[in-house]
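Lab notebook: predicted structure, single chain.

Context: the supervisor wants predicted structures on file for every construct in the current expression panel, including those that have not yet been purified. This is the next one on the list. No modifications to the sequence; it matches the entry in the shared construct table.
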Amino acid sequence: MLNQKKRLLFSLFWSLLLLWNSNALNSRSMAQTIPISLGTQRELFIDDFLIDQMTNVQLLVHEPVRQEIAAECDAPWEGSGCNYYSVLHDKQEGIYRMYYHAWSIPDGINPGNTLTIGYRESRDGIHWDRPNLGLCEFEGSTENNIVLDKMGDGSGCHDFSPFIDENPNCPPEARYKATGASIQCNLGVWAYQSPDGIHWTPVVNQPVFTEGQFDSQNVAFWSPTEKKYILYYRVFSDGSAYKGIRQINRAVSDDFIHWTNEGTIQFPEGEGPTSLAQFYVNQIKPYERAPQLYIGFPTRYIDNGLTASTPLLPEWDLRQKRMELGERLGTAVTDAVYITSRDGKNFRQSNDVFLRPGLRTKDNWTYGDNYIARHVVETKSTEDDSPNELSIYATESYFTGNESKLRRYSLRMDGFASVHAKSLQGEMTTKPLTFSGKELSLNVATSGSGTVKVEICEPDGTPIPGFSLDDCDLIYGDSLDRRVSWKGQTNVESLIGQTVILRFVLREADLYSLKFE
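Prediction complete. Output recorded below exactly as produced.
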């Protein structure tokens, strides 16, 4: 009798296990067969969102190219503590605007003035002016570029992050919006608005969101895909200030006043902030050429403590002075990675550093350097007839001397990362997808001997007649908009709405993005 019961239980166990496995396999199969709908939107190979398989190719992160100093912060109300930059391109007005907290730390240790918000502007994103705004008094004069000197609670400004509101229902007087926090960061985020990006007023006379720590640059924007205002802000993993790991939370709003907390953004295991490499600023924003893609540039805060390497970093004498106030002020360093998301909640982290401190012997490798401004903007290339490029701005000289600097870096359009093939021929196939454009455009670059071919396949990998590798015309060169052709024909209209897989065969080439135009 007992053996019979055991056999029945054993049989039931295996039946349940087989049923669970069958359901799990069906769920995975369904997930794999639901195609990614591209429509006519651009997708970047900045992560593995589109990638199914890679052979002899890799997802390669491209570091920005160091360019000129964009801003030297050497005015009396500025100094070596300037940070938390925002850079906007107002295409309607034909002007670039820059905002940052202006702060002086004259001896590299003790603050010399209360934080204010500085403003600069440019016609090309490369050469920047520091205008006299006449708005705020500093040491008895309004001859300065201070755009805001106190938050709604009357205290000094800790951070202030403007954006141009793309909400189609936004009134003209609120075309510019901003989030900001006062020196007392735990009191909450204030909401501001402006008709021109210079004259700012609080939307309401109190903080609009209080569920966080906010002692960082807290940023917001209107999402054209989610059709909501999104706020990304600082929290600590154990819920109290300066305890646990610095992380990023998200909140949403329909009106920029009433916010709903959605909790901490998520990363796969092995990615995201850790106890060794915590995320400081987040700098998340939709990428203009692909607004369904959110890109952030979190600064990684790394403190290995006092080690044999610490005295070998630049300016050891000054580090020792700062360490008298707290060891981390001399031992911590900062660099930057990028993070990406299509739903705003689940993110991927770049598989390599995006901006490293680099080989410099002064004003470098300090806590506060390599903070990337929010956000990348399109500018003309400084090279002869090269096409437009992305400009990225990052801090340096923080905590050192009497001034800090903001440096411009450049990157090709969509050039954060690529599917990269070396001299050994490789392949990459995409996940199943659909599209509605009539031609396939690639942002692609090869060496002189490099080549690329594209095959369009059925979901099972069978080449579609007329779009095989043999039909594909050889691609080589360097272009932001290379149209793929098969036996001289670029039109793929016959495949619109059909689930397909793209197969790329590459050698000495970089594939940055694609779009069905």
